[in-house]
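Notebook B, p. 112. Complex prediction, attempt 2.
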Amino acid sequence: MDNSGGRGEITDWLTAAIIGRNPRRTLIRIGVLVVVSLLIFKFLLLPIRVEGVSMLPTYKENRVNFVNRAAYLFHPPRRGDVVAIRLAGEHIMYMKRIVGLPGETIAFHEGKVFINGQPLEEDYLRLPTNWEHPPERIGADEYFVVGDNRSMDWEDHLKGRAQREKIVGKILL
Amino acid sequence: MRRWVWGIALAVIILGAGIWGYRVMFPGPERVIRERLALVEKLANIAPNEAPLAKLANAQQLAACFTDNPQILIEGTGHGRVVINGQRDLQDAVRAARSQLTQLKVEFLDVNVAVAADKQTALVNLTGKATVPGDSDLMVQELNFQMRKEGRAWLVSRVETVKTLR
């Protein structure tokens, strides 16, 4: 009995499933996908992996996320935004939350943030804190950033005024 | 017609090889500085089970990458302040670090080199990362290296922390 007809059908089906009925069109689609992906991940979304505990519990260690480089194309960074701040480059960046805007005075009293003397509501805080820090003026081109994990000692937590040019973008997820 | 196409291709290849050869034999200051910093990075690493003689040799080689009177001022959140003035202090500090740590991984990332117009000094801005394998602690710091040309070698004259968050 001759089975070659059956084998031929399976081969045709496999070829259609892998390459498509029109290989040229498939190739063009793959090319477009590659170019679009390159553009997106080169210029728009920067993939990152979280290391460290300063943004707990909002962001856990070893989770993957993206930095949206286009977030501040049409408006400046806003209070509450979680942003990526570059050091010498973008291989390693700080991930912090903006709590103070340019020109404001920021202070910490009994763990609460005070902006221009007024307490700031921070619903995202889950861990207890008792930080104390005298009023500090934020420069015209600076943003005050701090992590969400304020249960550690003031000296052990990296925070402070970041220059606008160092803010790469907003954390996407 | 094919002959002149081959002739042009050969000329381009020879020209390219000549430019490449020139760059290899006469590297520009930025390339030399990057090679120096790559050496500093390599020597700053502490391998597990490093033999005492190797520790001593690496410490001396590392100190030789610096000028006679280097200044090092590094501050890290939660890690205190390190101030070193002079070759002797530097050598002592490097030997002490190598005797206390069994392993250390140091990386220089995002190296930006700016050579001064006189081509005798340069400023390097980079991100330094130090980890102890097996330990979750990570030290990351933006650093400025001031480089100075002494003879034909570029040496580190000053290292200081850049406060990314002030």
